[in-house]
TrEMBL record:
Every HD-GYP domain range: 110-299
Superkingdom assignment: Bacteria
Record's protein name: HD-GYP domain-containing protein
Stored InterPro entries: HD/PDEase_dom (IPR003607), HD_GYP_dom (IPR037522), RmlC-like_jellyroll (IPR014710), RmlC_Cupin_sf (IPR011051)
Coiled-coil ranges from the UniProt annotation: none
Amino acid sequence: MGIINEKSFIETVHMKGLQISLIASGDGTEVIYHKLENGTRWGLEPAEQWEALEYIYVLSGELHLLDPEEETFLKPGDSFFKNPVAVTYFFQANGPTEFLYITSQPIYHLYSKATKELLELAVSIEEKDGYTVGHCERIKKLSMLVGETIGLKTNQLKCLNIAAFLHDVGKLRIPLDILQKPGKLTPEEWNIMKEHSLHGRKILEEIGLPFLKEAGKIVEQHHERYDGSGYPHGLKGDEISIEAAIIAVVDSYDAMTTERVYQKARTKEAALNELYQNRGTLYNPYIVDTFLELQKDEF
């Protein structure tokens, strides 16, 4: 490309699939370079009491605006801007994509801090819970595939993206001797383990960013079950958010097909059959049917 080079960067933050770099700032305006890997998603959302310009200019690759009512593909030289941003806009990179984000709201340090914290949380979860590297990313990818297939709105997709990635963040507050116990948990230990979904919501709320608070509500519900047998509140049916219902199916599938310290991995076929057998009881039947249909072509 030759337009942007590392010497141009004041500061850079890396996260899986995403690089953000502050190029220039002054008088409250910031120019932020973004580099997204194929399939990585990125969003713009309204900010309270903020009515200034937000501008995107694509340098390379392609940005797909994921909006059923305003589906747009931005190619090199194309731009997208709103003044102000009144609703959430969610983009996906089709192939490696670079763009400049220009905002008259100085947000880079808040933005980069949140990015670092999210990455650190995800790595901590996987290390503590004994999952293979990439568990959080797999849950996010499959959850988003289901969410997009059933036509969730942009704001729902944004929250699902974060909640799926950090669904088990509350396990950071569960004692290691319980979390990594190779044998069956005692009733007392199981009660402590079940608190992780409540801890997850609290952790995301404590960070203080509005979109994380919304994601926290989904995280809290991802172990609720369609027939009311789940936790922490025994919600059932439509009392469970559709985003949480998606994560419940995807997380169960990944857990069944992953080798764990206390359980052998099942085959893909066995895991999918288990989901089917529990559609309408443990899992939302619409989500199970969507997931099973997708697996024929995608997984």
